[in-house]
Amino acid sequence: MISALPQQDGLLTALLVAVNPDGLGGAVLRALSGPDRDAWLAELRQLLPAEAPFVKVPINVGFDRLLGGLDFAATVAGGKPVFSTGLLEAANGGVLCLAMAERITDSTAAIVTQALDTGGIRIERDGLAGKRETSFGVVALDEGLEPEEALSAGLGDRLAFHVSSDALAEMRDIDVGFTRDDVSRAQDRLMSIALPDAVLGVLVQTALAFGIDSVRAELLAAEAARTAAALLGKTRVDEEDAALGARLVFSSRATRLPAEQPPEEAPPERPENERSDSDPDNDPDSEPQLSGEMPDELVVDAVRAAIPEGLLEMLADGSANRQTASGGRSPMKTKSRRRGRPIGVKASTDLGSSRLNLLATLKAAAPWQTLRGRERAAASTPADAPRLELRREDLHVSRYQDNVETSTIFVVDASGSQAAQRLAEVKGAIELLLNDCYVRRDQVALIAFRGDAAETLLPPTRALARVKRSLASLPGGGATPLANGLDAARELASSVVRQGRVPVVVLLTDGRANVARDGAQGADAATVDALAAARLLRAEGLKALLVDTSRRPRPRARELAAAMGAHYVPLPFADAASISATVQRNVA
Amino acid sequence: MFPFSAIVAQDGMKQALMIAAVDRSIGGVLLFGDRGTGKSTAIRALASLLPKMRAVTGCPFNADPDLDHCSCDRCSDPKRKSRLVQVPVVDLPLGVTEDRVVGALDIERALVQGEKSFDPGLLARANRGFLYIDEVNLLEDHIVDLLLDVAASGENLVEREGLSVRHPARFVLVGSGNPEEGELRPQLIDRFGLTVEVKTSTDVKSRVEVIKRRDVYERDPKTFGKKWSRADGTLRRRIVKARERLDAVVLGDEILLKSAEICMALGTDGSRGELTLMRAARAHAALDGAESVSFEHLRKVAPMALSHRMRRNPLDDSSASARVERVLEQEL
Asked: For chain B, how are helix, strand and coil distributed in percent, rounded to 5?
């Protein structure tokens, strides 16, 4: 019997997933493709039982492949509908590996999520209705670089381990110390391992102390602890296992550090009435069978030590986004990135570049087969004619509608040349525009520049109330680093483009730059830099709009607009409706 | 299936589902909120709580032998038989295709026998039952369009591939989702009678209980189901009794007046809010075994009946239920 698990989280997670893929949900590997990631995958495959499938899902997978669908070739050959098995069903008993997981659509993620939750899939497609059992673990290969490029939060919530590239690098050339046989022995033991209430209590308290909302995190930590115990040949989960489970599962999900404050002082957004809503027998007064007020120190320390440094800093100064930390993706990114959705089928004798809709075509052809067969017999066509006869008029194509989502980036000049009153007017104009963005379900981002720097106050979000708040608290005054503001806008815009959205830059300024890119004061250098930055925006082909906020429209701002290829609108005439119309024109 | 009564806490969610089971005319329930709060579990578990119903044997639309005028072969047969069946709770899975929702040409019969015949879809199966959409905000728009129309008319009209079929499709919509994952169309939200925002409990004891029960269930679902079958039975009898009593529950003038005032103060759109509020309060009273609706009943159901019917202000992010609570504080 082996007495110690591997020290490296990379190896450890691969080992645990190999033993208990469906119980743990699986793992997110947040790293670029490379030898380290390959090594983790190789380790997993080498530990998984030989017969366990390892199914790779490409990024552009359609529902028909995921769930199964009509097999056209076999259908035509057999003269009756034949359905092919989907990838989710093929992964039964093994692992489903999602490539480029940060880019899969929310619908794809939700289908995988439902399969994980229910241990099966429901198919209602193309004339096939059915339920198939399938249970598997997911390995999500998340190559996102920025925090907002990440796996769908719902799916991330169900995968026990979030493995960083550092953890992957750490396991280089180290032997896991377990064999496939050890893994299957652990699997046999898994169900018989006891999970004492006290250990569960510790896990729950630890999760609460780290501000983790989802009960699923505790379930997964308990499952990880149990799996570790199984590998070590124990009969019950002990504190050490709990610490291991908590460390691996909680460290990436923490939203705050266990402060000196008692866990009762939960985040403020929790309504007071919740307690009264819960079971009467959950009265906090009747609680104390559990191991005390504060979570177990050993477990807390294990988690604390494992929290990645960047997250730790954010947690320390309280700036960590609750949602990002708890699920992997912040709320503003969760809307599906639709590239176009099918909006139906139409009969078409000309395929052109359209996509043939097999089902519709077959269905159109189907009723006529007997008839056509008779015609064929009458015309004494050779006997080896196809059993399914398709004619030109049967052809149907799918119709798609492009559904491009827009992110409006407001770049606000908050410098001193914008007198306080003007700034208030600008804020008012933006607020009016926000309503419009709401109607179009646009995302909105906010950049402000003043003094010597530009600051991204809000990355693209759909939470317009946050935009309003951050706008309201935006102070004015200081010099005008216009070039910096434009550069910041360009950077943000390119990240929006990378996510498949269309950015629109709305710059609100009087165009009077007086701080150059290098921070030097002086209008001349600053203007040169600003124009250069503006031309870069234009070179990227970004759609832009400049709202001139000076009291009387000046050529300066107009020149700037020309340099950045922006529509020019002077504020005195820029009521929300006209700006909105201009934005719309730019998008269309 | 995880038993309904084994779900820890989350009383608001359970209450809303039971109210919807007592009075179908309220319209369905939409559960939204935090991940991992057992939304789907509760809805899937609802099926076993529902008392059985009588339906014509073999009718694809579960027609009621006494009330429905169904034109299918089985119902047209003078020697038709009927039997007690489970009330259907039909899953509308993501990735569903249009033909499976509304029904379409039976492709197998067409291919093999060269016959045109109608293969009923999910809407047919859900007739007189519940239609459940998990991740409702991810449902594709063209499927939503189909649902909106049928949910309003209670009838599914299929005109495709040379078929012309009309069949009853009266179902209660039940949905769950996470608003962070996409907005719902207002028309779709309106089809739901009640909405409940489900939150994670921060109470250690109940969280431990959640995990323990999950764990026991997953190791041995059968034994677990047996252990909770009595509790489920009690709930089922409560639903049956409440249904019987429903019409006899008194709705006093002062209750009607108060619900009108609450709706006015909240600025809810249309009279559907008031109607839903009254019906939900009555069903709640019936479940409680009360003879008449009290202010307390009204208060309990007002957030679930009204929070999704207020005009949305995109710039005010205080939650809808908080706004309802504020008004209730003043009015009651």
From this structure: 50, 15, 30
Which of A321, A170, A204 lies closest to A256 in space, CA to CA? A321
Q: Which of A20, A213, A215 to mutate to test the interface with B (most CBs of B within 10 A)?
A: A215
Q: Which helix (H) or strand (E) holds A483?
A: helix A482-498
pLDDT, one tens digit per residue, over A294-335 is 567 778 887 877 776 666 666 555 444 433 333 333 322 333
Give the residue ranges of DSSP H helices in A331-481: 358-365, 369-378, 420-440, 464-472
A137-196 per-position pLDDT tens digit: 999 999 888 777 788 888 999 999 999 988 888 888 888 889 999 999 999 999 899 999
* Interface touch A124/B100, C-beta < 8 Å: yes
Q: Are B181 and A153 in contact (CB < 8 Å)?
A: yes
Q: Which residue of B has its CA nearest to A390?
A: B111
- Per-residue pLDDT of A435-451, as tens digits, reads 777 666 678 899 999 88
Give the distance from residue A372's alpha carbon to the nearest chain B alpha carbon, in angstroms: 10
Asked whether the beta carbons of B282 and B251 are under 8 A apart, the reply is yes
By C-alpha distance, the chain A residue nearest B182 is A335
The pairing of beta strand B130-134 with beta strand B82-85? unpaired
Q: H or E stretch including B212? A: helix B204-219
Cβ–Cβ under 8 Å, residues A151 and A28: yes
Q: What is the reported pLDDT for A288? A: 36
ipTM above 0.85, yes or no: no
Contact B25, B171 (CB under 8 A): no
Q: Is B279 labeled as catalytic in the residue annotation? A: no
Contact between A219 and B113 using a beta-carbon 8 Å cutoff = no
Please report the residues numbered 131 through 150 in chain B whose beta carbons come closer than 8 angstroms to any beta carbon of chain A. Answer: 134-135, 138, 140-142
> Strand, helix or coil at A194?
strand
CB contact under 8 A, B96 and A125: yes
Question: For residue B83, what are the β-bridge partners?
Answer: B55
The four Cα atoms A555, A557, A558, A562 give a dihedral, to 10 degrees, of 130
pLDDT given at position A53: 94
Contact (CB<8Å) A214/B111: no
Counted residue by residue, chain B has a size of 332
Least confident of A418-422, A469-473, B95-99: A418-422
Q: Chain A residue with minimal CA distance to B134?
A: A114
Q: Closest to B116 (Cβ–Cβ): which among A129, A271, A367?
A: A367
Residues in chain B closer than 8 A to A200 (CB atoms): 208, 211-212
Residue from B254, B36, B33 nearest A113 by CA: B36
Give the DSSP H or E segment for B20: helix B11-22
**Which of B95, B110, B114 has the CB atom closest to A125's CB atom?**
B95
3-class DSSP assignment, residue A538: helix
A61: left (phi over 0), alpha (psi -120 to 50) or beta: beta
Cβ atoms B182, B138 nearer than 8 A? yes
Measured CA distances, B183 to B134, B196, B320 (Å): 14, 16, 15
Query: Mutate which of B138, B184, B317 to disrupt the A interface (most A C-beta within 10 Å)?
Result: B138
